[in-house]
Amino acid sequence: MTYEQKTVLVADDDAQMRLSLRYVLGRAGYTVEEAVNGRDAVNRINAREGGYDAVLMDILMPDQEGIETILQLRRTHPDLRIIAMSGGARLYDFDPLKLAQDCGANFVIAKPFEPAALRKLLAICLGGAD
Fold first, then answer.
1. Is 15 domain-assigned?
2. Cα–Cα dist 50/78, whole Å
3. Domain-embedded: residue 130
4. What is the model's pLDDT at position 95?
5. Residue 64, Ramachandran bin (φ over 0: left; ψ between -120 and 50: alpha; else beta)
6. Distance from C-alpha of 113 to C-alpha of 85, rounded to nearest angstrom
7. What is the number of domains present in the chain?
8. Which one of 23, 45, 60, 128 is separated from 36 by 20 to 30 angstroms, measured CA to CA?
9. What SS3 class is residue 4?
10. What is the DSSP secondary structure assignment for residue 90, as one 8-state letter?
11. Which pTM was predicted?
């Protein structure tokens, strides 16, 4: 059986979070690339021949935040698998992860999360089993 390595783009303005996700997902066999905000993510997605298998998208980022980016990606890359993540607090009736899902994220995960939970969610997102 041939193993096809999946490529994931991590879009997060927190350098430590990107480094941690690169480590966790790399150890799980994924190829990981990074973007520092939504605009950077869109540019990388548009420039990468063959595309990405999935994008982990932070919601609260400077320059171009995650919700705007998810909406843009749904127009230009409707089949792209997107997992939205946020550590942002819920304010009154505003839940950034619920909004992300309403705007087209396939799955959501709240920060902080356990590495195993993310690996399992990513495997489900990509149609595999953990």
1. yes
2. 15
3. no
4. 84
5. beta
6. 9
7. 1
8. 128
9. coil
10. P
11. 0.91
